[in-house]
Amino acid sequence: MAKANKSIYSALAANLLIAVTKFIAGAFTNSSSMIAEGIHSTVDTSNQLLLLYGLKRSAKPADQYRPFGYGKELYFWSFIVSIMIFGLGGVLSVSQGITHIRHPEELVDPGWNYAVLALSFVFEGASLMVAIKEFNKTRNGLTWWKAIIKSKDPSGFLVLFEDGAAVMGLLIVFVLMVLSHSLKMPFLDGLASVLVGVLLILVSFILARESRSLLMGEGLSPETQQKLKVLVESDNDVIEVKSILSTYQSPKEVLLVLILTFQPELDTEDLTTAIDRLRDKIKAEYSIIRFVIIQPQSVTLKSDDFAS
């Protein structure tokens, strides 16, 4: 598990170390943007803990209360993370920034802020590189955006977005802090906080959309469904695949429901044997499909069949 979630652990360590230093620097220098960055890092730290909790919960085996397992716990906690980014990260940063725009304060010894920003950039950049490397292993030749849309593991792209937003936020804060200090325009520090907040809100909307889609129940891709149809209809006892229904229970578990038309001459024993054979064939071909439910459907006779 530690190897599979390397990006989460690296992001957790980086954000935990950086959050404290940002708050200390912000308190010493009266910098709202640095306080906003501290809030950002604190929220990210909490998010990584929630993701790890969700991963642990999703690994629980099925029981009488959850016969299909607890896999969707990960999707639920991922959605909570996106809400936290919006509320605790974005809204608080915007609010903090607006306050400092309306009541600007001169920066006191901004050298502390520059030192913390440099250190933060190193740690956040290293964490982002790990996240990119780990997510890149799952892309399978797809473009980055398409890989994110198609991904069924939110723990991967959540950390990628968080680290990316963190690095962009640091660059925004650095540029506006330099301008604020050199041009003697302290309101720019508050503007930096607002921009960081807006960035987090935009990221939260993207992550909420993806997490909601997974939580509501995404199914197998049309390409995979077509391959399944060909596989099943190649069986001599199957006439036609009437319907394919599927949903991801977790990133590595799919529930599949097939409605099939079988040969009319099959008796109950033959039908049971055919269903068992098809179930084994599907699971052997697609390890991700854990649950297979096959519903036989009666053959619909056409009017020509009654013609003498």
TrEMBL record:
InterPro entries: Cation_efflux, Cation_efflux_CTD_sf, Cation_efflux_TM, Cation_efflux_TMD_sf, SLC30A9. GO terms for cellular component: membrane. It is found in: Membrane. GO terms for biological process: zinc ion transport. The chain crosses the membrane at residues 7-28, 74-94, 114-135, 156-179, 191-208. It is a multi-pass membrane protein. Keywords: Membrane, Transmembrane, Transmembrane helix, Transport. GO terms for molecular function: monoatomic cation transmembrane transporter activity. Residues 10-216 form the Cation efflux protein transmembrane domain. PANTHER family: HUEL-CATION TRANSPORTER, PROTON-COUPLED ZINC ANTIPORTER SLC30A9, MITOCHONDRIAL. This is Cation diffusion facilitator family transporter. It comes from Pedobacter petrophilus.
